[in-house]
Design a protein that fits this description.
Elements (H helix, E strand, L loop, with lengths): L1 E4 L2 E10 L5 E4 L5 E6 L4 H10 L1 H15 L10 E4 L2 E8 L6 E3 L2 E5 L3 H33 L8 E5 L6 E4 L4 E5 L7 H13 L8 H10 L3 H5 L6
Parallel strand pairs: 2-4, 6-8, 9-11
Antiparallel strand pairs: 1-2, 3-4, 5-6, 7-8, 10-11
The structure holds zinc ion.
Zinc ion binds next to loops.
């Protein structure tokens, strides 16, 4: 489940319990957790969240500022992930790194091992997400009648740009650091780069295509820092 505040989507973990009323909490990593009575309808939980959206968003913001100091990859610390945060949980025995809701369980005995396992997982997760978005955005362009190639995606760790498009070779580079931002930001960057297949500049015609196919573009793009 999720709720929205000022254009940002906040993921929410819902647990059903034998209890009388809905209780909302913000964990130290910024994750919103709701405990709800067993028979409580999803729509009632959604309504309660939306009624408290401003207060919850503020608490999430505070939790994030505290956690925002560079991640130290210790057990119980958190890392940014698609606009929310993942709490790292060290598993006692070797095994696959698994994300469940806001928790990333990985095998590590110290922060260095945790960092390695986390980066390996992030690269795989990013590859999967970018592959899906690549197909989704390409399909949207084709449906609108634009003749664009299905891009070959290269994932890069870049400091100064979110993406780039080499129209002549059908290649788009996407920054892995986008994985810290809400998925709308990642999607928006895909639309931006795909529009460069049609216009190799940032002209009004370029933005007309981007906004036609992704009306939310400006809202999400505003969250990305542009250097
Ligand atoms: Zn551009």
């Amino acid at each position: 489940m999720e709720f929205t505040c000022n254009g940002r989507r906040y993921p929410v973990t819902v647990t059903r319990k034998k209890m009388k009323r809905i209780i909302m909490k913000v964990r130290t990593d910024g994750m919103v957790c709701v405990s709800a009575p067993l028979r409580c309808a999803d729509s009632d939980i959604a309504r309660a969240l939306q009624q408290n959206a401003a207060a919850l968003a503020q608490m999430v913001g505070e939790a994030e500022r505290r956690a925002d100091a560079a991640p130290d990859y210790t057990d119980g610390s958190s890392v940014p992930y698609l606009g929310g945060r993942l709490t790292l949980h060290y598993a006692a025995a070797p095994g696959k790194t698994i994300r469940e809701d806001g928790v990333l369980t990985l095998f590590a005995r110290d922060p260095q091992e945790a960092y390695g396992a986390y980066r390996q997982w992030l690269a795989a997760d990013c590859t999967e997400l970018y592959r899906e978005l690549n197909r989704e955005v390409w399909t949207a362009f084709r449906k609108a009648g634009y003749d664009v190639p299905l891009a070959r995606i290269e994932i890069k760790d870049m400091v100064s740009r979110w993406g780039s498009c080499t129209a002549s070779s059908g290649r788009i580079s996407m920054n892995i650091r986008l994985m810290e931002y809400p998925i709308g930001c990642v999607r928006g960057t895909f639309y931006h780069e795909y529009a460069h297949f049609l216009h190799q500049d940032h002209s009004a015609a370029f933005y007309a295509v981007v906004r036609q196919l992704y009306p939310e573009y400006d809202r999400w793009d505003a969250l990305l820092k542009h250097r």
